[in-house]
Design brief:
The chain is built from 18 helices and 22 strands. By secondary structure, it is an alpha/beta fold. It folds into 3 domains: about 170 residues, Rossmann fold (3-Layer(aba) Sandwich), CATH 3.40.50; about 180 residues, Rossmann fold, CATH 3.40.50.300; about 140 residues, no CATH class. It has a 7-stranded parallel β-sheet with strand order 3-4-2-5-6-1-7. The protein has a 6-stranded parallel β-sheet with strand order 8-13-12-9-11-10, sandwiched between helices. α2 packs across α3 and α17 crosses α18. About 0% of the residues have low confidence.
């Protein structure tokens, strides 16, 4: 497995902070490849002889993180587990459940590196006791935390464990690079916005009982379903409600219209919850409602609509909820499911309060700054401290008003967050230029050479025992790939070539040999071989003067796989229709 350039940067910054400070917190949202990055850091050569402990708070994450660690570090040594079923410290990397280990700290062995997944939990007593024990056993232990949501609802600081943030990957970066689909956000006023703006904040969040008194009315619930049907009625949808009772009432409103909906709540048994989630994953349930149960650690690729029926005190919480719908779809896993964007319907005040989805950091800022509250070292351009939650003052930005609903927006906003009105000042030429430049960035950052063919309707990357292509078919962009000895796989179907390209590039990074990219890139400066010329001279794709050995290899890859690709696209497009 080969990391994206942004993942390598995250890894390098984290390793530097660990070496200099002994601890660090890295922030990465859904889609960044958080597990891949923490595995790469833990498996780095600087920890070759170290004993590593990777901590997670749920059973399913133990297996997931261990599997990813082995994929990223195929020569990383033996792994073992310490959980409710197995208690084995023999691995060079041990994957442990925090609740289990916290109950038997006397059994803990000295470690050189501790990696904490979902590190915003570190303010909890069980984590603090565990970290304290690790430092007693080895005062020089390094501690790495990774999370998407550092700022906790209870305002507890992460300072006892971390005193710096090494890096923060933003949602905007991932969307621009094609790793997540784009959100289309709508703020829908059903006549209660003024009342919601008056709801009191408690220590952790808004008073959700008070929110429910305002929102949980049958006439409003019916209106919510009506607006959903108008804007997103054919989409798999997750709904975030203020209380469980509120979720049940909105669920009844959906069901009364013949829409299959269900509620996930914290007091459900594991078997019942799993059964409901699996039914939603099979699309037997279209709308899934919850009260802060699905905010973290849950992803469903076909979900393409997120409904917010509650305000959020923290912007990170809002981003986490919206992130549930931004994953791209793997068409092999979900045949016939097409997803080009995610509609976000905010019936509360979150998007207005937090000024849309703009990030919590300026990604163009360089260097570091210190938090005046807790002295944590943060990336320059941070708008709030991920360790203690301190908010930095921002300069007043130039704004413009929506001509329809008159809401104020940043001058570079492309659409109104209130009514969806599209601002046209950017112009078609500027947007097109941005898309082209972004695609060039992706191709230049790739370890593989992406060769455009047939006027750009096909793009090919070939690397000995694996290849991938982006193909325009019936007006849509499809990504396909093939590993040696396997059938052609369909890996993306979208209306955006960038999304297809980034998915195909990730496929190559996952399955190609570590050195394959550099080897095939050398062919760009070489002339085709006589064998290549002979094989292509009587084909529909003869080589032209100046064609390289790599371009010849791409033509041959297309020629030998063309019929299989056509069959696959006919098959999947038939299912989609």
């Amino acid at each position: 497995m080969q990391l994206r350039d942004r993942q390598v940067k995250f890894k390098d910054k984290s390793l530097k902070a660990l070496k200099e400070k002994g601890n660090t917190l890295g922030i990465a949202p859904t889609g960044a490849g958080k597990t891949v990055m923490l595995s790469a850091i833990a498996g780095d050569d600087s920890y070759r002889d170290a004993r590593r402990l990777v901590l997670q708070h749920r059973d399913e994450l133990v297996a997931q993180n261990e599997t990813t660690y082995k994929q990223v570090n195929p020569k990383g040594g033996r792994t073992s587990r310490y959980d409710a079923r197995v208690k084995d410290w023999s691995g060079s990397a041990v994957f442990a459940m925090v609740p289990t280990l916290a109950r038997s700290l006397d059994k803990m062995e000295p470690m050189d590196l501790i990696v904490i997944d979902e590190a915003h939990h570190c303010a909890a007593g069980s984590y603090l006791r565990l970290v304290d024990q690790a430092k007693k056993l080895n005062p020089d232990v390094h501690i790495l935390g990774v999370t998407a949501t550092p700022n906790r609802g209870d305002k507890k600081s992460l300072q006892p464990t971390f005193d710096n943030v090494s890096d923060q990957i933003t949602l905007g970066e991932l969307i621009k690079a094609g790793h997540l689909v784009k959100p289309r956000t709508f703020v829908v006023d059903i006549g209660v916005r003024g009342e919601l703006e008056g709801v009191k904040r408690r220590a952790a969040d808004f008073d959700m009982d008070e929110v429910a008194k305002i929102m949980d009315k049958s006439v409003l619930n019916d209106k919510i379903v009506e607006e959903w049907e108008r804007l997103a009625g054919n989409r798999q949808t997750v709904v975030f409600c203020s209380t469980v009772e509120h979720a049940n009432h909105v669920c009844e409103a959906f069901n009364s219209k013949g829409i299959v909906a269900a509620v996930i709540s914290g007091d459900m048994g594991k078997a019942e919850r799993r059964k409901t989630l699996e039914a939603y994953d099979r699309q037997e349930i279209q709308v899934l409602l919850n009260c802060m149960v699905l905010t973290e650690g849950w992803d469903n690729q076909p979900t393409s609509c997120v409904i917010l029926l509650r305000p959020s005190s923290f912007k990170s919480t809002m981003i986490q909820m919206i992130g549930r719908g931004l994953r791209k779809v793997n068409p092999e896993r979900y045949p016939g499911v097409v997803k080009d964007n995610c509609i976000v319907l905010d019936f509360g005040t979150s998007l207005l309060m937090h000024d849309g989805l703009e990030e919590m950091a300026d990604i163009n800022a360089q260097g570091t700054i210190d938090c005046p509250e807790c002295d944590a070292t943060l990336p320059a351009g941070s708008y709030e401290c991920a360790i203690c939650g301190h908010e930095f003052p921002r300069e007043e930005a130039e704004t413009k008003d929506c001509p329809v609903c008159h809401l104020e927006h940043p001058i570079n906003a492309s659409s109104c967050r209130g009514c969806g009105y599209l601002f046209v000042e950017t112009g078609e030429k500027e947007v097109l230029k941005d898309i082209v430049l972004t695609e060039i960035d992706v191709m230049n950052d790739s370890p593989f050479r992406w060769e455009p063919m047939f006027g750009g309707v096909v793009m090919v990357a070939a690397a000995f025992d694996v290849w991938a292509m982006v193909v325009n078919y019936n007006g849509r962009w499809h990504a396909v790939g093939r590993q040696e000895g396997r059938h052609v796989a369909h890996i993306a179907d979208c209306n955006d070539r960038l999304l297809a390209l980034s998915t195909a590039d990730d496929y190559m990074r996952m399955y190609a040999d570590q050195d394959a990219g550099s080897k095939t890139r050398r062919w760009i400066s070489l002339a085709p071989t006589l064998k290549q010329i002979k094989m292509l001279e009587n084909s529909p794709y003869p080589l032209a003067k100046g064609d390289t050995r790599y371009r010849a290899a791409c033509f041959m890859t297309w020629r030998f796989n063309e019929k299989a690709i056509q069959r696959k696209l006919l098959q999947v497009c038939g299912k989609a229709a």
